[in-house]
Amino acid sequence: MPKNGKVVKRELDDEVTESVKDLLSNEDTCDDSFKKSSLIVNDGPDDKDRDVEEGSDSEEERPAWNSKLQYILAQVGFSVGLGNVWRFPYLCQKNGGGAYLVPYLILLVLIGIPLFFLELAVGQRIRRGSIGVCFFVALYYNVIIGWSLFYFSQSFQQPLPWHECPLVKNKTLTYVEPECEKSSATTYYWYRMALNISDSISESGGLNWKMTLCLLAAWTLVCLAMIKGIQSSGKVMYFSSLFPYVVLICFLVRALLLTGSIDGIRHMFTPKLEIMLEPKVWREAATQVFFALGLGFGGVIAFSSYNKRDNNCHFDAVLVSFINFFTSVLATLVVFAVLGFKANIMNAKCVALNTKKIVGLLDNKIISHDLIPRHINFSHVTPEDYLLMTKIIREVQEDNYAALNLDPCRIEDELNKAVQGTGLAFIAFTEAMTHFPASPFWSVMFFLMLINLGLGSMFGTIEGIITPIVDTFKVRKEFLTVGCCVLAFLIGLIFVQRSGNYFVAMFDDYSATLPLLIVVILENIAVAWVYGIDKFFDDLKDMLGFTPYRFYYYMWKFITPLVLLVLLATTFIQLGMTPPSYSAWKEDLAQETSLSYPTWGLAMCISLVVAAMLPVPVVFILRYFNLLEEGAGGLSTVSYKKGRIIKEEPSPEDEDNASLIHGKSPSEAPSPMPPGKSIYRRQSGAGDSDTAPNGRYGIGYLMADTADTPDTPDTPESDL
């Protein structure tokens, strides 16, 4: 096809001899980028072909994945995100260790895989994006990537800048920064040096210029990777999806060689079976399953919409779901191994500090030397020695033991300090890495892993925003992607104020959880009850070539809607029982305190919930009253002929695709062609069937139908 923008004319040639196989092979040789093409419609033998100037009324080719591996990596990259590293280990630690894996696996099979399969099938069936809760999530999720970029940039120095508390010098004294001395070096660095956080959400404090630049860099990375859609992001996926696994495995091997790592892993796999029976554990497991797979965001459907219609999406659903689960377990092993190492270090410090207290009590004759076992050497007191001493002292001075102010110094107490989210990544983990040999190297690897995990999820999130808009309004994806990223960066400046961390927590709590639940419930009900589960099963049989297990029939129709409604009800109950609040860092106290949102903050929380769900009723109303038209080319297909792309009018197959959107069965969808007409040229020797030459689910490699045109050989091109 010429690239100089001239008029392209199509020649009707009765001597076309290419086989379907030859035409299929053209797919790989054609340019994968979007191309303009000429439109030809044959209404009858007397109608003339219409020549359409390139770029006027033609449509763009829908891109496709270069390979199945690229698609799987994209789905894995989207579903495996930061939550697998810092949310799942926290829930496992909090809810009974290894016992938490039991309800998680059960709920993964009952609601996770069926709903993930549902979204994959819907995207593959309708071949277009869908409404999801993406934009608000993208706004704050990229801020976390910005934070990781900041720590990544600060990791190229020895010692690491959060290794110890800074010293403050004045004219007469040099002393440790009070805020750091009251907390810890890593805590101080996070809240003061990185965020420079204000005391409350009401105190904006102006922009943090360091984080503003990091946010700009994060959105630039996303924009460059997404500017060509899956053609550009698909190639990045090979690195962004696989690199985190390399880092996690390296971290696991290194952590297992550290002192105390086995204590952490033993703590993880020691089940607390009594906790497993608590309803709260099952609710949190269901929530984690729901969010871990990225359900309701729109990214899963968007990625799946670029698949072939006969792709085995059931296999994809099971594969990606279990990859996600095993990634969470791998990350949990790494986290607990590192936290076991850190717990031993913190416990050793506790023993050393309290041993000094015991020596002071002995010197002041508050306790007797006879209480100290003779084998204990105060120059090197082990945790076991300290526990023995405190046990004896407690038995002898039972009434006065509390007044001695001796800490228990047990490793289990350190491991039970549940840490999640930014507290795990930017405080606990960074503190542990300061004790690693070659700590800058491990810090660089860790934060590069977080960046890649975040980018993988961001690609799916942005695709979930861009795809439905492009599919509906036919705008240029490049311009839309740049505009979306610029707008998101400008709105995201609210998160890089000194109070920005509080807004991140607000958006995470109120723009994602509740709206996502409601969107997926509506999605489930729309497919299983409005469109009809039987018709959807027929669609699946046509796509997959086999009927899915009856298990999914009952899951989609009864179990998953019921579980989701129960989860929604418990979420409302939790919101009602715990008024909206946030954790604020108090500089003078050097600790977090819980504060209630101001009136405008409460209004903003409610607005976030409403705004995140608003696209669903708006689009429903627009489509119900036919205010949002599909457009003439809305469901057109694009075909190849000798390397050229030729646009077709909507075919019956495409009308079938639209039928799911409008709630019709395929048989109810009207045919766009007059009876007896076909947009496919019949092959030489073929019968009168109007079936597409490359099968039920091909994209239609168009050859002009000469059966309805008179034999006029050597017709001059000007007469066409």
TrEMBL record:
Assigned keywords, A-Z: Glycoprotein, Membrane, Metal-binding, Sodium, Symport, Transmembrane, Transmembrane helix, Transport
Native source species: Albula glossodonta
Residues that span the membrane, as ranges: 69-86, 98-118, 130-152, 209-230, 242-265, 285-306, 318-339, 441-466, 478-496, 516-533, 554-577, 597-622
Name this polypeptide is given: Transporter
Keyword Lipid biosynthesis: no
Residue stretches in coiled coil: none
Stored InterPro entries: Na/ntran_symport, Neutral_aa_SLC6, SNS_sf
Places the protein is found: Membrane
